[in-house]
Amino acid sequence: MVAQHTPCTLHFSILPPELACKLFYTMVDLARGGWKRNKWWLFERMVESPHRTAFFVRKDLGRERAEWTEAAQYWYNGTPTDIPPAFPPEMEEACYIIERVVNTEMRKRKRFSMEWRPSSDTPEPLWQANVAASNCYEGGKETVGWHSDQLTYLGPYPTIASLSLGTRRTFSLRDVVPAEEQEKRHARTYNISLPHNSLVIMHATTQERFKHSIPPQSAVDIYKPILPRSAFNISSSHSSSSSPPKSKPASKVVGEDVKIEPSNIRINITFRFYRPDFRPQSTPRCKCGIPMILRPDMKNTIAREKTRKPASRSGGASSVGGSGIDGRGSSDEGGGLNVDGEQEMKYWWTCYAYAQKEGKGCGFWKVMDLHAEGRGWKEGA
Ligand SMILES: O=C(O)CCC(=O)C(=O)O
Ligand SMILES: [Fe+2]
Fold first, then answer.
1. Concatenated DSSP letters of 187-210
2. Biased-composition ranges for Gly residues (predicted)?
3. ipTM
4. Which of 101, 87, 88, 36 is nearest to 232 (CA)?
5. pLDDT of 20-57, one tens digit each?
6. 314 is in which domain, residue-wise?
7. Ligand 2 centre from 362 Cα, in Å?
8. Domain containing residue 203: CATH number
9. Given the DSSP bridges, would you call strands 189-194 and 169-175 parallel, antiparallel or unpaired?
10. pTM of the full structure
11. Looking at ligand 1, which atom is closest to the CA of residue 270?
């Protein structure tokens, strides 16, 4: 049903049970060790997200690693951050398994012309995670509000693999109805229950056509790990923040040590592929001099503005962008269909200063032009 009604697929028991359990413990301990509450962009105002979050960069990336380290601060709303940690070993192991599933699913699906493609001489894999963002929700009151993920480094039509560990929570997806269709249909909300060790793959168009959230719940089902911490030589969570972990061989585990601690925590890990043609150095800057963010034109505003001249969106100095409304040439003939006959999505680069300067950004925006900006797939690249 998920695949039938949304651009997502849902996969149960994705990891070997022991690995899922161990990864849960590892992430819970890391979260307790100092993950931050992020600021979130929500309906034109900033709110502090009522859950904790962390950002990881894959370790064997070589030169690329430094660049994505720079990008990490945008995960934290533009706040400069320490160098993000590498994937812990269990996360690396999980990622390897997840990548195979994602690539199998992607090969079954239609591809979009603006979507990332590997070069013609190395056609596989289609998707390889190079960063991961993780969330920790403790109890039913910790949530994330409606949003679609920023595309600044993911580029158009991204694929994001989202792993759930621990307590079962509802993942809500709601489609965004373009303005011209609002009289014909209403948005629909799909509530998907995500148990421990399940994977949601948000395929291409999920970020363009839908918003997602983890809504609050008045009660959550307690998660009982299949193995105690001591089975993995991990010390009790109670002592983990105050004293160094005590290693114990599993065979010596007796009495209290084998007790399984029930938990009300859900850990989410979103594995992401940050595109080489959207690396931080290539992000355009606004009049404030800071890198802009990339967002899809979910409501089809650009196409509608194009038919209403002159181009002006919010009036005054804030409509200074506009450069991309005209002058594309590639896609707007044929009723917005591109050369592959698909209804082409448009994207805005917009000023991100509101996140850092209490809403006092320059308001600059421009329409993204993939080819004019030197991005996208090139034959033999
Ligand atoms: O916890 C989840 O499943 C969703 C998290 C999310 O939407 C995000 O990190 O962008
Ligand atoms: Fe998200």
1. --EEEEEE-TTEEEEE-TTHHHHE
2. 318-337
3. 0.99
4. 88
5. 999 999 999 999 988 887 765 555 556 677 788 999 99
6. 283-381
7. 26
8. 2.60.120.590
9. antiparallel
10. 0.86
11. 9
